[in-house]
Specification:
CATH class of one domain: Alpha Beta
CATH superfamily of one domain: Vaccinia Virus protein VP39
CATH topology of one domain: Rossmann fold
Strand content: 15-25%
Bound molecules: S-adenosylmethionine
Order of helices and strands: HHEHEHEEEEHEHHHEHHHE
Distance between the termini: 36 Å
Length: 320
């Protein structure tokens, strides 16, 4: 599945609104070290970074094009306390944030940093992220990492944040295990993702269209693309991975799109497990007919806006 990061960036105002609601719940002081899981195009991650000028933010995502786009849009020159890294939500662990080279400890400005050089940090010739601070230019030789800061067992994130991403992840327990391993004791897990019943009305128009002769061959073998859980699942899992639950709930949300075109752009930019099964030369037609079906059943409001009933699973927990 190939994300088009620019298309997502241009058509994700709804997700950004939800992210802002989630950020508001954090009541940030400004010095926290935060991990954003499934950060996508990075605009939400950058907003978090601006809210913690004395802290740092790491955005991770499984999609290399998303991370590339995020790095280009928010380079260190623009947002110095922000780093992006390709990483699967099921494989979060401190070791994945660090370099294989033995670090050299350095003490500066009261912040303990571990500085390494000449390391291959994933595919990126620059610094890794840090929950504690970041290095800057101790070694600027071409082809070498200028400096990097690593997570050590006693240097963990204060917050693990994730918006509109985890419903793409099949193994939420693996995510929780990883999140717990990189959070400090007392650190906070705050998540909003699609939950049980999410976008039900869209599935109701999508499925009959997929069964039509024109499209059927493209949907013969369908794997489950989204993983929509309920509070009961998380109430069971959170304590197993060392979390104390503050709240886990399903929250109904009204997603609003600018007319038919806005709804179609949302389908094109995020319903990839369906739209990308259809060959490119037929894709716009497929998106168009699904949109027509939806709008016929759910006509736009007086201002021409199309509404979709969404169901978000919201998790707020603390690492014990
Ligand atoms: C709808 S976007 C959300 C992006 C961003 N969090 C936001 O609020 O706009 C979903 C993101 O989840 C990412 N994603 C899907 N599966 C993932 C996984 N297993 N690990 C990490 N990221 C994943 C996708 O690559 C995509 O960038």
């Amino acid at each position: 599945m190939a994300w088009n990061a620019a298309d997502y960036a241009a058509n994700s105002a709804v997700q950004q609104t939800w992210a802002r609601e989630l950020i508001a719940q954090l009541h940030l002081r400004g010095d926290e070290h935060i991990l954003d899981v499934g950060c996508g195009d990075g605009k939400v991650t950058a907003e978090i970074a601006w809210a913690v000028p004395r802290g740092s933010v790491a955005g991770v995502d499984a999609s290399a094009p998303m991370i590339e786009f995020a790095r280009q849009t928010f380079p260190r020159g623009k947002v110095p306390n922000l780093e992006f890294q390709v990483m699967d939500a099921r494989e979060i662990k401190a070791a994945n944030f660090s370099s294989p080279s033995p670090p050299q400890k350095e003490e500066r400005a009261g912040v303990r940093r571990l500085v390494v050089s000449n390391t291959n940090l994933l595919s990126r010739p620059s610094a890794t992220l840090s929950p504690l601070g970041r290095g800057e230019g101790v070694d600027s030789a071409p082809g070498r990492v200028s400096s990097c800061v690593q997570i050590q067992p006693d240097e963990k994130f204060d917050i693990v944040f994730s918006n509109a991403a985890l419903h793409w992840v099949d193994d939420h327990r693996a995510f929780l295990r990883g999140a717990a391993s990189v959070l400090r004791s007392g650190g906070r897990l705050i998540v909003s993702c699609g939950g049980k019943g999410n976008a039900h009305d869209v599935f109701l128009v999508l499925r009959p269209e997929m069964r039509l002769k024109r499209w059927r061959e493209f949907f013969r073998r369908t794997e489950k693309p989204y993983f929509l859980y309920s509070p009961a699942d998380y109430e069971k899992w959170l304590p197993r991975f060392g979390f104390k639950t503050h709240s886990v709930r399903l929250s109904p949300k009204d997603a609003v799109y600018e007319g038919r075109a806005g709804f179609a752009a949302w389908l094109r930019s995020t319903w990839l497990p369906y739209t990308q099964r259809v060959p490119e030369n037929l894709r716009e037609e497929f998106i168009g007919v699904v949109t027509d079906r939806y709008v016929a059943k759910h006509p736009p409001d007086a201002d021409g806006r199309v509404h979709v009933r969404m169901m978000r699973l919201e998790i707020d927990a603390v690492k014990v």
